[in-house]
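## retry 2 of 3
previous attempt timed out at serialization; input unchanged, resubmitting
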Amino acid sequence: MSTPETAPRTTSLPLTLLGLVTVVVVVAATAFGGGAAPLDLGDPGAFVRWSLPVLRTIHDAAAAVTIGALALAAFIVPETTRTLRRRTLSRLAGGAAIIWFLAGVGGILTTFASLAGLKLTDPSYLSQLTAFVWDLDNTRTGVISAALVAVVAVAAPLVRTKSALAWLSATSLLALLPLALSGHSSASVDHMAGVNALAFHLLAASLWVGGLVALLVIRPSLGSHLAVTVRRYSSVAAWCFVLLVGSGLLASWINMGGLSGLDSRYGVLLILKAVAAVLLGAAGWWHRSQIIAALDHGAKGATPFVRLALGEVVVMAAAMGLGAAVGRTPIPPSAQERPEGSIVYDLSGYPDPGAPDSSSWLTAWQIDWLWLPVTIIAILVYVRWVLRLRARGDHWPMLRTISWVLGWLVFFYFTSGGPGVYGKVSFSWHMIEHMGVAMIAPLLMVPGAPLTLALRALPARKDKTLGPRELILATVHSSVMKVLANPIVAASLFFFSLAIFYYSPLFELALRTHTGHVLMMIHFLATGYMFTWVLIGVDPGPKRWEPLGLLVVLFVTISFHAFFGVVITQSPELLAENFFGRLDLPWLPDPLADQRKGGAIAWGVGEAPTLILAIAVAWQWMRSDSRETTRLDRRADRDGDAELEAYNAGLAELNRRDAD
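## retry succeeded, writing output
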């Protein structure tokens, strides 16, 4: 007789603490910072002014619970045959997502009222809202986010599988990203860096806070699984803490313009947030050094864990309330606002870098604060896996490690060095950046075999959770990967998406918007990596083509790539004319000539990587033949060359029949 499933025991205390403390703190901090003070011109009324920070903190808290519950259900909490932990967490996520959605819609309504200087009861409010809600950045990002949240709210209570929960986790994280495009960081002089910092800050804070709250909610039902659940969450929390502190420092520096702003009310609120971060860091260290070890020894460690974790939730809630208040507090006078009257800055989001010279290849730098942490994480995680293999006595080729590290350093150079700086305003420099990201960096990354290393270094889970190793295996053996890893598909994405991108409005969108630029870089790297991987990759995946077929695909693709460069070289029309034609750079008087130069670069730069790829495919072909010959020789030694004997016997039989 099967054991009946029972609903897990839960507690609502963490949710109560999170909601109560956030609202109390945001009200007090907003009053201190003057974030709800009456406006001299176009005041929307006290209700709107106070609703904005309160709704935002409710929005952020609900978002955190949604994300944390989904992440725990998909990746962290073990499931058993007697409980329905995933179902409970998914329902918690669904309920929190409804609150997230409602607070988001309320934020859109009050934000528009504040921007328009209208009270919610104004007769013209509704007509103006419907006419302009999509035209304003702050409300448009809110609409996009709310639409994604609505999907999560509807789907979360219905899903049952780990893969569906993983997709919902990704969707909920994606719903946060549009919000990074609004706030103080969007008005700072280093707009792009501020947006990147805020994006990391939102993601890290939501996953960290929401994960702990969801863990405490379901803690009464975890029993013997509490220790492993806390240990897994602690690893995620450590990464979130590093990202949160780093992004917070960067955003604060950008918004204040220096340390002189610390004596303002805005600075005081930031100092309080910093104190909260220090307290949480100390609590996290105590968890990892003391609490988890106590949990390993049985239930006696549960009480200290719960007490410390509830204290963390209170501090986290206070920090979230402070953060919402900071978003409404006037920035100090020391902050550098975006320049006025600069057509280059208005179009690209960056100031004119000035005329390049021969030294600009090495001296021109503009750190991309999105790709720098990505590069650091990619290198650190890879090296950590290598050290883990060596600690247990396994070998990993040094050349693979060097290749992987160099690949990411090359990628960082092309996004933050000279090509990245001038590629934002010059087509020829942009094409250098494109070639570096899509062809040179993947040529170094792919031989690093990161998937093979991960599968050897990461432990397998046996408790029905979707860990990193399981996620990698599910991805590389998925039907989607079978399609993408087909050489013809990979080659088509590499070339045809290139042509579609440059000869469509997408190119200008990527040049003028931060989101478009980020998606462009992701596309260049992803298609370049996939194309290189299907040719010379050694990581596990779908069955590889024979080397001869791969060489044909390579030369056909590069021929089309060269043809694309020739077309641009001879084109009489300026691509992204509303962008390059309006920059009016004094050191670049003829954008069309610069475009033709870029076409020549696209034509010529691809030849060296093509030759290297061709040599690599041919080398793998020869090694494959050598391994096959060795295998046949060994089999012949074992069976006395039975295959050859059978072949000779067959020939002899044919000769005998012919003679008869």
